Amino acid sequence: MNRILSRKSPPSKAWQTHRRQLCQLPIALACGLGAGLGAAPIQATESDEVRLALLIGNRHYPSPYDLPPVHKNVRDLRAALERWGFVVTEAVDLAPAALLQAIQSFGQLARQAPEDATVLFYFTGHGLQVEAENLMVGAGISPAHAADHLLRSSLQLTRDVIEQLPQRATGLSIAVIDACRTSLKEALQGGGLNQVEAPTGCLISFATAAGKPAIAPAVETQNTFYTGSLVKVLQQADGELSFPDLFRLVKRDVQQVMEAHPVAAIRQLAQVPFIAENAPRRSRLAPRSRAAAAPQAASAPAEARPEDEARLLEALEQASWPADVRKLAEDYLQRYPQGRLRGRAEVMRDGASQAAEALQRRDVRLYRSAFNMTEASPSVVDDLRKAARGDKDAAARLGRLHTQRQTGAERSRYEGWMAYAAALGNGIASYELALHYRKVDQPLLAAQFESRARELGYTPPPSLDHLRK
């Protein structure tokens, strides 16, 4: 389904050009790709914000690798995204060349969108890792092919998707990969995608943890577990929720649904979705004009005042120590169980709890002084707050600020932040720390953090792997 977003202010020439490009996108893609791409009448929304989505679903693979839920995934996610003002283009069952053309055409349009646009790419189909590269397998290609064939006939996540999307501090680009299997026996053998980090202005989410398999029902009337949760959270979420918080709520919902599943093998394979985030701007789910016009729902108990909730929310947003964040989030949820930012408070509570637990590890030497925001730049302050809420990538970025001087306090702070990032699940940071310890002649610590990196699902590229030898 494809729609055009309209602006309430008089459109500029640049906007008129952009609007024509949006109208022409389904036609251009359909002409080049054939029936695999869905187009629909152009409609308008009341948003002044540009939101674009490309949904790719590959169901048809050689037997026994067919993925029945894929088409339902695309249909349901399209409807959920359109509710929040996205112009959605869908492409189903495309061979590799057509798939690449669709992504490149979409990427070109996305890069021409306004600086603050929100862009979403979604792939559901077979995905795997070959030589540390994350691949998306085109329709008609067997995922059981030899590695060299898959490298030639599949799309690479970084090169063909992430690098095609805008990377802007004022906007947001999202890449969602729901790569699944239908065979429980095959899934129990392990394997999955490689860990990645998101460039500036981007969020990347996988259906399960790096190095782990995701599974799909073998029927076309059900969604995959990840997309089912994504659609549900999109349907139920408050418009004040940010996109990063949305994906963290999806992560929690996937875990809860699968851990409570009646089939033991599915409980055993309960997915823990992977998130890599580096989005400086807090983009809300509701488009700007809609959010401004929406009345605020009553959320406080009768004896409470709105200004009390606002003060508590402000204190929660400003806190930068995990224990403080957790306590303030718990206070908010206790006082305002139906508060308009309940979802955000739940995400912060859960993340801060994980952060506090990580700080208790014996191999993490990071103390409260490291979270001091005095004289820090706005970007560092943002990362300090994220790290206090369990953001593994923010913790790694903070560690890398201390790589220039590898002596004394600077070296200690680098090691502390990178160990903390590893404890939060960042396998890339763990591997970087292993290389650091190898460089300073501490082989036991190097081996420890290299082992942890691989446990976390990170496979270094061959060129980087040679550095440890």
From TrEMBL:
Its source organism is: Aquariibacter lacus
Q: Which domain of life is it from?
A: Bacteria
Query: By its UniProt entry, which PROSITE patterns does this protein fall under?
Result: CASPASE_P20, PROKAR_LIPOPROTEIN
Gene Ontology terms: biological process: proteolysis
Query: Which portions of the chain have biased composition (kind: Low complexity)?
Result: 288-303
- Pfam families recorded: Peptidase_C14
InterPro entries reported for this sequence: Caspase-like_dom_sf, Caspase-related_regulators, Pept_C14_caspase, Pept_C14_p20
Which region ranges are annotated with the description Disordered? 281-307
Transmembrane ranges, per UniProt, are none
Name of this chain's protein: Caspase family protein
- What is an example of a GO molecular function annotated in this UniProt entry? cysteine-type endopeptidase activity
Q: Which Gene3D superfamilies match?
A: 3.40.50.1460
Q: Where is the Caspase family p20 domain?
A: 49-129
